[in-house]
Design a protein that fits this description.
271 residues, alpha+beta, 4-stranded antiparallel β-sheet, 9 helices, 8% strand
Length: 271
């Protein structure tokens, strides 16, 4: 389990990240699946939707929220995963995971990674409409997919984009990339095979009445207006997350430099 989605990219990536907002898609979770199959189902879906190489998003989810499944003898991403205070926890139900996040927030903890893709609530406070939404595998994976697509647009190399999913700080990105590439080439494929036999839980289909033609036209118009507004909101959220991530990494590098100078007997300004 890794600290997830604390992305920073170069300034040239702003236009790409803003454009990603225009590629929003309807989020609707695959119904009836058991928790151990939910993340894999969504990563496969959004890999197709965004043209992400097969199993790359899946491999990221396994690095971020993977846990060992003894029955299938594979590491599978788990949707009710939380990382905070340097500790990762897997919860058996969404309700228990929600309760833990609320407990952490009541203590003033904001640096919390959440869900299949371990999206960080501090750096991405407006990524989801609610904590409940953040734990929805479809919403969680959709947000991560848009970020990964934007990073690819900025770098032009999927492996580099995937390493920046964790951090743009060189040594952190390199370590993350090394682990991720092993999962992508090996364990990711094993996990996908392990989930091949998982079937949705049978449920009765819910049929909706077909509205009159004029009503459908108005609904389509309203959906377009809503999507346009959503695209603007998404672009703003991505830009805000970018700025917060860049500032956090700058502050960390600055603090380390000051500590190193002090250890060498120099003042913080180098004299």
């Amino acid at each position: 389990m890794r600290a997830g989605l604390r992305i920073s990219v170069t300034g040239a990536a702003f236009a790409v990240l803003l454009a990603v907002g225009a590629m929003r898609v309807a989020v609707a979770a695959v119904p009836g699946l058991p928790p151990e199959a939910m993340c894999a189902a969504e990563t496969a879906r959004y890999e197709r939707l965004y043209g992400i190489p097969p199993q790359l998003l899946d491999a990221i989810s396994i690095v971020e929220s993977g846990r060992w499944d003894a029955a299938r003898r594979a590491t599978l991403a788990w949707p009710w995963t939380i990382t905070a205070d340097g500790e990762g926890k897997f919860f058996p139900t969404k309700a228990e995971a929600l309760a833990e996040v609320r407990r952490l927030k009541s203590r003033g903890v904001t640096n919390i990674d959440i869900g299949c893709m371990q999206v960080n609530l501090r750096y991405h406070p407006e990524a989801f409409s609610s904590i409940e939404d953040a734990f929805d595998p479809a919403a969680n994976v959709a947000y991560a997919a848009r970020f990964l697509k934007g990073l690819y647009g900025a770098t032009g190399v999927w492996q580099t984009a995937a390493s920046y999913y964790h951090s743009q700080t060189p040594h952190l990105a390199a370590a993350y990339k090394a682990k991720l590439m092993k999962v992508w080439s090996g364990a990711g494929a094993s996990a996908r095979s392990a989930l091949a036999s998982v079937q949705p839980v049978p449920h009765a289909p819910q049929l909706k009445p077909v509205p009159p033609s004029s009503q459908r036209v108005e609904e389509m118009r309203q959906a377009w207006r809503d999507q346009t507004a959503g695209n603007r909101d998404e672009a703003r959220r991505i830009a805000d997350a970018y700025r917060r991530a860049r500032l956090a990494e700058y502050q960390l590098r600055r603090a380390r430099m000051v500590d190193a100078r002090r250890a060498a007997g120099l003042s913080s300004d180098g004299y």
